[in-house]
Design brief:
alpha/beta; 7-stranded parallel β-sheet; 6-stranded parallel β-sheet; binds adenosine-5'-diphosphate
Amino acid sequence: MVAQVLVEIKAKAVDRVFDYLIPLDYEEKVQVGIRVLVPFGKQNLEGFVMAIKPDSSIQNLKEIKEVIDDEVILNDELLKVGEYISKKTLATQMASLEAMLPKALKAHHGVKVNKKYDTYVSLIDFDYEGKNDKQKELITKLKEKDYLKTDLKEYNSAIQTLIKKEVIELKKEEVYRLQDDVDKEISNIKLNQDQKTAIQKVKESSNTFKPFLLYGVTGSGKTEVYMHMISNVIDNGKEAIVLVPEISLTPQLVGNFKKRFGNDIAILHSRLSDGERYDEWRKIVRSEVKIAIGARSAIFAPFKNLGIIIVDEEHTTTYKQDSNPRYHAIDIALFRGKLNNIPVVLGSATPSLESYTRAQMGIYELLRLPKRINNNLPDVKLIDMAPEIKKGYRILSKELIEALNNTLEHNEQAIILLNRRGYSTTVTCHECGHCITCPNCDIPLTYHKKNNIMKCHYCDYTTFKPLTCPECHSKDISQFGLGTEKLEEEINKLFPTFKTIRMDIDTTSTKGSHAKIFEAFKKHEYDILVGTQMISKGLDFENVTLVGVINGDASLNIPDFRSAERTFSLLNQVAGRAGRGDKKGYVIIQGFNLNHYSILKAKVHDYEGFYNEEMKVRKALKYPPYYNLSMLTLVGKDYDYALEEGKKICDYIKSHVKNVIVLGPTSSFMPKINNNYYIQITLKYKKSNELLNALSFLNQKYVSTKVKLEIDINPLK
Ligand code: ADP
Ligand code: ZN
Ligand code: ZN
């Protein structure tokens, strides 16, 4: 028999299978979807067995050297998913397969991860009585049950002797590194009608592929809906995948799931060790758990009997991987949904424009939870900071200070979010909020520290950074905004008797630190939680009645056509943290450019209103969802050469693809990282097939030349 083996070299030139003879000894062991060691040139390489056939047209085949796995690690479904990723993203087959696997199971990963064992002491000769006290004691103990060796430290020498005499033996048993025991709690929540309808609709299509968009405002009880949908699936003997943006930022969702489903869950946390991840993967393969919860890569959970896939906060950009292979987890969810004939539920309070459009067109079925459980959305107030600064309120407005006072006096809690998006790359005035933009494109210019210049990464317009603000002539103009530390300091100064806790990259670098901060705040050990975007997601604190947002408009300055969508979504999310209990919530958004529709619509919790406005802009400027977008980046050490190649690629695309808009080549974002130049080409188009063919051709052509070509289809940053 002959095996077709995909070897591990990621370079495009060898992204194909090679035939190898299966030695007779291995015929039983070699299966499709396992790893083998094969001779390749002068070395031995690991590869995946992709197919097995009776013979080969090639003469003098080499033999497989070694079989690595006893169990299949890439089942039929994952092999199909791998093929799909490769086709959709133009990544190599090997990169696509490896993206799905935990490190321990990748081919040639360089990390050896072993299974973990516990050693038990077990009695085999029940007649022997023991020579001394220790031996006698040990034998008495073991007559009742086996003991973990580590629990019998004091008997170590007795154990050694009795093993030699064959009175006892050691037994090894595989254990998982993560093993927690949670008790399930019965929930007494009574679903409302909207929740019931959503659950019913999904139940009706339990054996058909159908995508749903669960559009539910913040606090409308989406988590409860997910849990009921999953219960239904488990009752049918099937399994569920739940994607969340990031486990550490959604401790409450995970906690709720644990209470409901106990030990039936594998949690695929980004901070798991390689060994822990390997163990969780095997629990899934062996169907020892029914639910996998995790971020993007949990979409590859190797369940064999999937019943539903749920993607929470479906608009989140981290669902798209921004390195090779550049897949989007929702695409994979839909693909697996189709393969398994099951429903796929995408949930959000602010669906992506693409998803909401698909729901409008009937491609997704729309499920709505229009009301908060407590029927009470918070009141939102916008505060223009330009006059405040003149009055000396540079960081917190007078209104926000008063609101904080009032909240704290009533023994309630507050969250203050500092919007730092868009600040590190653009140049903004801290007196009037003016952001310096491109005169041609109206997109913020990107600051390049090295030569003190600002540049448009769409059209290449370049200018020096001015010394004063062109609007108000203030000298307080820079590429950096206020930091969270400074903000915390200011709040401590204003409210010395209250306790503030800060959450940002600095305070959350250690494992478990997110959860600790959330718990302490939940228990009201602190009055004010200060933080970055991190605190905007899925938190449910009953006692929080005030949310303040500093620089609410900053994210409008991100040099990206999705900046309005990001801003609306962020403000909506963070405002959704206020007034979730019985008390009324208040939100204060500070900024300079508050008349933008993304902010005005967020003020009145009007997603549809925002959607309609934003769709007009997308249509006029030919952006998604009206047009598809792809981004090509050429990377090379020789700028002129790379730019020339960029021009040739543009010409090639223009002459081979109809109805495509080609922008560029321009030198992108950061012109020089590691002495490499980055040349960028943006493509806008309606139909994908022709373009994919052209890109696929280019992708093959740019092997080992002086320029590296990177292709990002439907980029999301
Ligand atoms: P979302 O994810 O939509 O923001 P959550 O699922 O966090 O909302 O629900 C908000 C709160 O309401 C949670 O504390 C949840 O336990 C509670 N809840 C959900 N459904 C109901 C219901 N039908 N009746 C009462 N409380 C509910
Ligand atoms: Zn420009
Ligand atoms: Zn200014």
